[in-house]
Design brief:
By secondary structure, the chain is an alpha+beta fold. The protein has four helices and three strands. The protein has helices at 4-14, 18-34, 43-53, 73-87, and strands at 95-98, 102-107, 110-115. A three-stranded antiparallel sheet has the order 1-2-3, covered by helices on one side. The chain is elongated and about 95 Å long. It starts with a helix and ends in a 12-residue tail after the last strand.
Length: 127
């Protein structure tokens, strides 16, 4: 006897009629009971299925090319101006660690880094 819950679940999930669900569940029970395939393959189909199941392809190799970044001349100009301002003081000599991003300098025994960030334009539509 087939469980009513299984019939209802099959009807709901697979959009089957009650008769179709019962028939499907009976076939499933028969397959599980006898461990036989009610739809056997021909010898040729079995060869194709075996070939499809075997994996001879190796892992995919990706070409990860490093993209050349365009220099940001505006950021370089801003950093150069800030560098010259800090250089004009009596603090320890500043270093331009990254010409488009950071300046490092020391005042007494304390070390500072000035970092410049250019924000992206906001997306259209407020997202």
């Amino acid at each position: 006897m087939i469980d009513e819950k299984k019939i209802q679940k099959a009807m709901k999930n697979l959009d089957l009629t009650r008769e179709e669900a019962i028939e499907m569940l009976k076939e499933d029970e028969e397959i599980e009971k006898h461990d036989a395939n009610p739809h056997p393959l021909t010898a040729e189909q079995e060869k194709v299925a075996k070939k499809m199941r075997s994996s001879t392809r190796g892992p995919t190799v990706y070409k990860l090319d490093k993209r050349e970044r365009k220099p940001n001349e505006l950021k370089r100009e801003i950093m150069q101006t800030l560098f010259e301002c800090v250089q004009g003081t009596d603090w320890a000599a500043p270093t331009l660690s990254n010409p488009e991003r950071t300046i490092d300098f020391t005042i007494g025994d304390r070390t500072f880094t000035v970092s410049l960030t250019e924000h992206r334009k906001p997306k259209e539509g407020g997202g």
